[in-house]
Amino acid sequence: MAAxxxxxxxxxxxxxxxxxxxxxLKTENKxxxxxxxxxxxxxxxxxxxxxxxxxxxxxxxxxDYLRNTRAFHEKGWKLVxxxxxxxxxxxxxxxxxxxxxxxxxxxxxxxxxxxVKSRLPEEILKRIERLKQIYSERIxxxxxxxxxxxxxxxxxxxxxxxxxxxxxxxxxxxSHVGRFTLTSFLLHIGMKPDAIIDLFRKSSDFNExxxxxxxxxxxxxxxxxxxxxxxxxxxxxxxxLCPGMDNLCKRVRHPLTYYLRKTRSMKRKKIDExxxxxx
Length: 279
Fold this sequence. Notes:
The protein is of the alpha+beta class. The chain is built from eleven helices and six strands. The model is unreliable at 140-144 (pLDDT under 50).
């Protein structure tokens, strides 16, 4: 895994292992959960506290809690919405397991050493190169459907794209993966390259020549001619670009699928409203 020397693959592997650990921890006994948590330096203890109608299994120091909820955007995880007593956040077994998933993912990522490649046998290195080729081919896949016919409807943007779009409009920093995601998404729904260039103008590191080149490359107008697709939802989650799922997010696996379904739903609703008005 380390020998692939690919940040995305490393994160995907770490996430998969952390998710597997989460599923196991959900049914693990409390003693084992506390033992594992303390190996990561958590200040955690058993709790039989009943707060309101809720009974909790554990009490975790709020600093350890905050460290492991930085990537969470759901309101339920906000500290202000949690029961906190004496500097401790009270949690259920499943919630502690979810927080440990974050800790485990970071631990695995930190343990993957890219220097290991030089110590691998030649046969293994050949297989690694093959895996790199497969990864490159998959990330370049183009969508099967033309989304431009739906028009550009901002209200139909999925939460991840909406957040990136607003960040670009206000000139806030966006990661490389975030820019790629936003650009490829907007191109697929029909936005012109010049309009996307204007969207990024407020960025502190804006360079029109470089921005145009990158956008045209993603659009397939330069280089290999490949028209790039936005990453899938699980990839965006891996890179911390998912701000939290709404109900439609839970039924799709790709931002473009979300957009297509949302625009169709909005159009059906508009047609129904028009019919009702004409009755």
